[in-house]
Amino acid sequence: MRGLFITLEGGDGAGKSTQIRNIEKYFAAKGIKVTHTREPGGPPISEKLREILLDTGNTEMDAVTEMLIYAAARAQNVREIVLPAMERGEVVICDRFVDSSIAYQAFGRELGSMVAEVNRHATGGLSPDLTIWLDIDPEKGKARASGDKGPDRLDLESTAFHSRVRRGYASIAESEPERFKRIDASGTIEEIQGLITDCLDELCRSKGI
Ligand code: TMP
Fold this sequence. Notes:
The protein is of the alpha/beta class. It has eight helices and five strands. It has helices at 16-29, 44-54, 63-87, 98-108, 114-123, 138-144, 159-175, 189-207, and strands spanning 4-9, 34-38, 91-95, 130-135, 180-184.
């Protein structure tokens, strides 16, 4: 069996980490092995690229440079972690994927259609079976963020930038409603978990799991 590929999207304070742990438990309860990775990051090479991308000192970074480094980190993650785990029949949960580049680089940085084109090469055309977008108003998210890691280089962008990012996600939700599920992340952890479980149940039913 080919495994499943599930990705999570959402800004600071949306509760992504907590919900990823719950998704892992959901599949573990079914006796299915789960591999967890993140973007930018995952394998050591991609984690090194993450440091460059999120370093608040890198104020000179050009938008195209940024987009290509995200794609480079992704190419390594796909080939070193995601595809091998899927070939072993596992469920792969990835914290962010191409949709982040569409939202932040195509919409936020206003780079447009080149972002999707570059990422087709980076991923070899791999697309998630399901993407959960934990949508929260950027200001509310900021207030709820744990603050344990401090803002990264992108977090420091303007409110206008983050509004464009959110519009980017909304546009993906509109064009790919089957794969890309918007979940209102302003509720409680339990409410969000319930909505995600409904999406997972539907996915498993459709795959006969
Ligand atoms: P994280 O803190 O959720 O790991 O996200 C890292 C930051 O990188 C976050 O501000 C979103 C940003 N990002 C992009 O701009 N483009 C991308 O393709 C990815 C994966 C993340």
